[in-house]
Known about the structure:
Layout: E1 24-36, H1 40-53, H2 56-70, E2 73-81, E3 87-94, H3 104-108, E4 114-123, E5 129-141, H4 150-156, E6 161-169, E7 172-173, E8 179-180, H5 195-198, E9 201-208, E10 213-220, H6 239-258
Amino acid sequence: MGKIKRKAKPKKKKLRLAGFNNLTKTLTFNIYDICYATTAKARKEYLEYIDEEYNSSRLEKIMKDVADIIGANILNISTQDYDPMGASVTMLISEAPITTPASDTVLAHLDKSHICSHTYPETNKRTGISTFRVDIDVSTCGKVSPLKALNYLISSFESDVVLIDYKVRGFTRDTRGRKLFIDHKILSIQEFISKTVLRRYRTIDFNIHQENLFHTKMVLDDVDLDNYLFGVKSVAMTETERDTVETRLNREMTDIFYGKNVYPGAH
Length: 267
């Protein structure tokens, strides 16, 4: 019997890339904004304020600025606001501009370099503490470095607690063919944060240099009570009430900073 001839599958058109660097640099930036809202009405107004202040339009503006700071080209943007609250934005970027028109299908494949942001507002009616979290991921290829945007990101939000992860994956090669698993010097993420910003925070590093993995945690050193009150002023509170609120705020920030309930039963 003769062999059955199979029809050759048509080859998919390949997207021509302007350059190639197999290193992927990923920055994960989490900030927490903490507030005290004692009544149900104040908590509702706080969440509404946060939802409006950091809606998808505001996040999109921040992410466009990040792309500009790190020198990336924006390929595509998708935004979404959620009911009852929260927002997210996804931005596809490239180191070099795509010179030929690309369809949405093609753009969907270029997600190795991207900027994503998500918001998570929540409130605790038992303690009156409301905590707003923003997660931003910046993942780039080539020479573009997401670390350049750190100071801007910290200043763009009311950053009471900041958790930062930076990881370099993959490898590229030099002109002699030798593998390079990282193409820039870094001992700590703190090297890329301004001294003015660092002076305001208590900071801890957890780094695994041999794995090109870096982690930095920051918590504000000085807590001015009036900056954390929503719907009430400190002058209208008794000294005992002020002490109680300050204790609750500090406990919330400490728990988030250490990633565990440091004060069991206090929540």
